Amino acid sequence: MEKNNTEQARELFTRYLGNPIQMHREGVLQQYKQYEVDKETEKQWAEDMIAGYLKQLSIRDWEAVDSLETLSRQYPNPEMAEKIVSFASRNLMSADSIVRLRFSENLVGIIRSHKKVMSREQLFTACRAAAELLQSVTRQPLVVDPGHELEQLGLKDKRGLNSRAKKSMDEVEALLN
Fold it and tell me: Which candidate, 64, 175, 48, places its Cα nearest to that of 122?
């Protein structure tokens, strides 16, 4: 593959987080397939993106963890899950209620994607971290930092926030069974 074609292919791959379904929805999958990117190259590109998003994890927003969840569906990587759990355990208890909820929802999605490639111990550790975050959302008072609004999540009040956290808690329990 020519260098220019490689760059164009990588740009498409990166824009759609390696998700062929999203590429298809946007009408670029056929164009991407014309570049004939091998699976090993795609895996390397995904690993590069994962490393970049892991560096961007922040308690100020959830964009990086959203991207990591999307990547985890196509490219499960137990090390990624461990690093996200470690970040959550160290940093998220000081985040606002919305960030903790969104991060924990994404964490549950990542655990779901990684369940088959995680050891039992890794699964328990990840589920414990998600459960602790979700419990903190429901048990602590509602805290919303400037720029984060309940409406962004389609919620009106603390009760809606707690309901959404409870739904994710139920999913954590299902993952452990």
Answer: 175
